[in-house]
Amino acid sequence: MKKVSLLIALCSALMIAAPVMALEVEVSGHYFVETYNNSNSNLSPNDATDDYSKMEFMAKPVFKITDNITLTTQFTGLEGHVWGDNPSDAGSEFDDDYNNIEWKAAYMTIKTPIGGFIVGRYIDTPWGTDLGDSTASHGSNDLAKDRIMWVVPVGDFISGLVYQRVGEGDKGVSDSDKDNIRAYGFTAYKQENWSTGLLVSRYNLKGFVDMADLRALQAGYNNYEALNDAATLAQATYDGAYAQIYAGLAPLLGEDAAYAAIQGELAATNDFALGQAVDLANLQRDASLAAGQAAAAGSLISGGLTNSTAAFWVLDPYFKGTFGPLGIEAEFLYAFGTLELDETRTDVRNGSQFDELDGEAMAATIDLKYTIAGFTFNGGYTYVQGDSDWADDEFGSIGYLEQSIDLEHGFLLTSDTADMEGTFGGTDANGIALGNLAGGRQTLAGCAGYQMYWLGAEYQVLDNLKIGALFVSSKADDAPYLDLTSTDKEQWDDDHGQEYDLTVEWNIMDNLTFNGVVAHLAAGDFWKAGDPDAEIEDNTTFYGQLIVEF
């Protein structure tokens, strides 16, 4: 409540002062409640239905200081709060003090004779189509970046430069240079019904974690968790058996004699049975062994992630246009560069040694729309290059570099609104999440890339009611490998399956909208995670969101 009170006091003070300072304040934002019902989000025959609701409040106050200076802020409250998750509940993830209010952005916009400047934690702006963009979440532009931007409009052109710090590794450390910095240069040409542009990016990431290190840590941590759980269970089993035997012997032998009898059994200095059904000495040995295995697994991951240096160029042209009833959007993304490792590695499949990865990856998307008599038909194709072989000396995963949260074609396969980008489909044998195609570097599906086409239609039933249908077919571009130490290079099946979505958008009244989705995935064999004998089942999700915007 302290944060809420401070925020209200701050805004109130600024608004009270506004007449004196000639300060103009505009506040926009939203509040929404959304509910989910997933029949089988792990795509497993043993999975249970999960049904829950979440909420979010977002406000964006903009303070006009002068005609040339504005200060923009943004904050959220109760973001991601699950209904029924209370701070007093055991195991609750809801923290009333720290997660209730979160500042998302604060930046100044300055107009000068040589262009406009944006300085601060900026709410990112999408470029071109949604390919390569991760600016929005749940349809709200709330993913911020720390940057300085210079923008110069000249006639029909708008150009600019951006310096962005995406990771800070130097502060307080005298012997490291681990900053992650991106620099951008862009120019766009805009006409009334079409636009085109080129974005050139330079990634200089000195604290970059490559895929091999990340996967090793993920697998190692999951192994540690499993061994630690086993050790906890073994110790609890031993403690329970010890307590039960002691409770039975103490009334018969006395406390000291009972204790001595048990210790003698554990030390194998006598043959006291202690109950024929319980081998207490073996239970103790099992607990000790399990604890040792967990400790050994923990030591392997105690160093955490190692950092390498990634230097990449990214070229990103786009075209968007509307010509009568026909609309077209297209974008191409090409990345190339090197990744300098902090160690020398050996590819066990061919014996080659290397301390650098050559990087080259690309992605492309095209979407065509045709509008007639209240109907809008669309079809398109997206290619996102994947790379699931993290044991060689090449790097080629667009999804590892850019998550593309904004590029949504298929509620289950590509959307972060589905709330399953890091969990969909369960895990592989090492406990690493499969996730959906917006899952990014943490997931196997995100790094494997995809080849996808879709066909859809929308119909404007009423001025305030629109319904739609979408068909999506997708497969992995470079499916994960069964064994990266084998020269066979055998891979999982690449078929993601086919998704069928029904959507509704109902503007109930001014500022109040209901969005609904029914999404079904006919799951392909990709979700068997390389096990041809695994059983998988389809998933159907019902989603509804009631949102008020102001």
Characterization of the model:
The protein is α+β, with helices and mostly antiparallel strands and 550 residues long. Among the domains are: 220-301, no CATH class; 308-549, Porin. Helices cover 20% and strands 44% of the residues. It has helices at 2-21, 211-253, 255-266, 280-301, 398-401, 411-414, 444-448, and strands spanning 24-38, 50-64, 69-82, 101-112, 115-123, 144-154, 157-167, 180-190, 194-208, 308-323, 326-346, 353-372, 375-384, 394-395, 450-462, 465-475, 495-509, 512-523, 539-549. The protein has an 18-stranded antiparallel beta barrel. A hairpin with a 2-residue loop joins β12 (353-372) and β13 (375-384). The chain is globular and about 95 Å long. The two termini are 24 Å apart. It comes from Desulfosarcina widdelii. This is Alginate export domain-containing protein. Residues 1-22 form the signal peptide. Keywords: Signal.
Q: Overall mean pLDDT score?
A: 86
N- and C-termini, Cα separation: 24 Å
Oligomeric assembly = single chain
Give me the strand/helix succession. Answer: HEEEEEEEEEHHHEEEEEHHHEEEEE
Parts with pLDDT < 50 across at least 5 consecutive residues = 1-6, 269-274
Report helical residue fraction: 10-25%
Helix tally? 7
